[in-house]
Amino acid sequence: MSTGAAEMLQDTGGTITDGAGTSPAAIAARSPIQLFWRRLRHDKVALTAAIFIVVLIFIAIFAGPLISLTGQRPPNEQSTKYLDSFGSASGPSSANWFGTDALGRSVFSRVLVGAQVSLKVAFISTAVILVIGVTLGMVAGYYRGWIDTLLARTMDVILAFPVLLLALGLGAACSFGNGCIQINYDRVGQVVFALGVVGALATVGWRGLRPPPEGVAPPKRKELALAALPWLVLIVPGILLWLVIKKTTGALISPGLPVVIFIIALAGVPYMARIIRGQVLSLREKEFVEAAMSLGASDSRIIFRHILPNLVAPIIVYTTLIIPTNILFEAALSFLGVGVQPPTASWGSMIADAIEIFDTAWWYMTFPGIALLLTVLAFNLVGDGLQDALNPRTGR
Amino acid sequence: MIPFIIRRLIWMVALLLIISFLTFVIFYTLPSADPALLRAGKQPTPELVATIRQQLGLDKPFYVQYVKYLDRLVFHFDFGYSYQNNVSVKSQIFDRLPATGALALGGMLVWLLVGIPIGILAALKHGRWPDKLAMGAALVAISAPVYWLGLVSLYLFSDELGKFPLFKGQGAYPSSGNIFTNPGAVIPALILPCLVLAASFAAVYARFMRGNLIEVMSEDYVRTARAKGLRERRVVLRHGVRSAITPIVTILGLDLGILLGGAILTESVFNIPGVGRLAFDSIQKSDLPTVQGTVLMGAFFIILLNLVVDVIYAFLDPRVRY
User: Fold this and answer.
1) ipTM, 2 decimals?
2) B151 and A365: CB-CB below 8 Å?
3) Which of B20, B259, B264 is the mutation pick for testing A, counting most A CBs within 10 A?
4) N or C: which end of chain B has fewer CB within 10 A?
């Protein structure tokens, strides 16, 4: 079952393939990845959107050089020279392609730089949601019992909490000075490291000392060392925090983007965990899991080698679909004044600034808005395309 | 069924208690502006600030404050008084609720009336141009941020500055009165906000309806209905739509619950004095009682509508049993 999401990738034949040209003799074995790619290749819209996203990522990375290359002014340069004769924002011209804002800054440059914030927040928060959500969902779905109940109840609380209000509250509080929830990174590093060492020792001790079941040879030294390996996940970052990062104290949630990422992740994890949990609940009843169990596979082996590969398709689809939601969430928070600190441009905060002058300066609200719309649209299109390609049975 | 509802109601109370406690803890552990200082005015003397702090009960430890708060809330249904202007939080919320309620319910009406027929049509024309057009438009609507759509529609359609002055604009919501006392002024002012708010929801519902209906129309009982010679119209409406529309109830409840807690973004753009604005302003002013009140009310709507959804669902879908 380690070849990928075979369940989700059965060839549906006629719907995507050429149909007429395939004779029984021409049937060749195709891996799930090949099948997936064959279907995606025919989805011109999704491919175009994917290319758009790649271009956008390049624009975000090379925003600075691009702006100087095009001869536009840097994003934070204010200038009264470019305001009109009444001292208010001026429209698109050869000097300022997208016009200027009320301070005479180039809207073009700011829209380009705004892509950085949007994409950075979207990717980081999605990654956080992915890791935490999948882990929680798998643990809850696989072990059930009190862990599942505890998780479900915690999720209930988070889901019932008005997220936007929480976001505004945290944003208002954590934007003061150094941010909120002061922690000592040294100490955290030590604790994490200690947990890792204790865990590793406990694993080795338990595996090595417990009387081996009948007919099974006692584990070899190499096996014992391998069993302790996963604890490196804690040990290595622990050492890094403890010794390498010299900064001793800091805020867990510092002002600016970390606040936004924290909030988006907090709001997104329950949904991801719920979806994964549901999938795991049904997967663990399948015959191949039963077979693995009866062969004596350990829990971690079943989870990582048998269940996780089957989750790849839903995880990919859901992940691509939450990226646009997260981009919109970040923009909404910036719009409400939580997020990047003022001179830095973000699409949401530009639209918020545009409210003051939207009746006279149409360009100031239009360009950031269109950039946001196109970006979100592109991610949505790719998400839909992936969904079709990975799971052709949903008659979308 | 009854035991299920009772269990859920008990859990609902517990959940609200947890949420109120969390709000309290978050408020006291995070740095924020000192409410007493904010209230003391431009040139506060330390004595004045201390007096205000004592009046508001801020000098007590936070668990004492929390127990007092709960005592008033549970036994007197009293949400306390705003730190900023001493107005009762309950009356503030009830003043603002009609605006948010009218906006959310009006929006819901629009998105159901627009989204569901479009979804049905797209499903019936599955794969052909009306379907592609509708789903393309839906994806654009989902991708557009509501506040931006609001600004653009004000720029194009509001009667003060619009290129096509069709609707009342930003400042049209009356400063006094609500939908019950002054419907003549409120309803026109809410048309454009409702349309803007409904756009992305309509798109989501159209996509959802389409997906459900396509799936249902390939079921065996639909083939049976056709085979026994029913007219297509009857097959679609009585056998297809009727069963495809049931899951809509679930997302409708969730969406409405979230919106009733305050549609902050839409309310901001259109200057509607709703609960969302109240919450936003009180957070900026560190006004804990008002924040607490709006958070609890928002959570209340979300949880209540979740419960309502589950109950309605059991009636609509006889296979579901609690």
Assistant:
1) 0.85
2) yes
3) B264
4) N
